């Protein structure tokens, strides 16, 4: 039986752990998390960009998220 390439196994396991961490961050715990909006993409400057790259996501209250857009031209796409 061939021995597995340990560096490849480590790389794949690290990738699986990173994916799990991202999934767990999206769990609803009764408190809003800015990470909930990470998968949201908006059209900006002719291409799709993550919401976090066109504005700031904050959590002012436990059940509220706010998005402050940096460029007034992208407000319509975020709405």
Overview of the structural elements:
This protein starts with 5 loop residues before the first helix and ends with a helix. 30% of the residues lie in helices and 27% in strands. The protein is α+β, with helices and mostly antiparallel strands. It has helices spanning 6-25, 75-78; strands at residues 41-44, 47-50, 55-61, 64-69. It is elongated, with a radius of gyration of 18 Å. The chain has a domain at 30-79: Gyrase A, domain 2 (2-Layer Sandwich), CATH 3.30.1360. The strands form 2 sheets. A two-stranded antiparallel sheet has the order 1-2. Strands 3-4 form a two-stranded antiparallel ribbon.
Q: Which structural category do the helix and sheet elements fall into?
A: alpha+beta
Beta-strand portion reads 25-35%
Provide a count of the helices.
2
CATH class of the domain at 30-79: Alpha Beta
Q: What is the helix content? A: 25-40%
Mean pLDDT metric: 81
Shape: elongated
**SSE order, as H and E?**
HEEEEH
Determine Rg (CA atoms, Å): 18 Å
Strand order of the largest sheet: 1-2
Query: Looking at CATH, which topology of the domain at 30-79 would you report?
Result: Gyrase A, domain 2
Main sheet overview: 2 strands, antiparallel
For the terminal residues, how far apart are their CA atoms?
A: 57 Å
Q: Provide the CATH architecture of the domain at 30-79.
A: 2-Layer Sandwich
Low-pLDDT regions: none
How many individual β-strands?
Answer: 4
InterPro entries: Ribosome_recyc_fac, Ribosome_recyc_fac_dom, RRF_sf
GO cellular component, one term: cytosol
Domain Ribosome recycling factor: 20-79
Pfam family, one: RRF
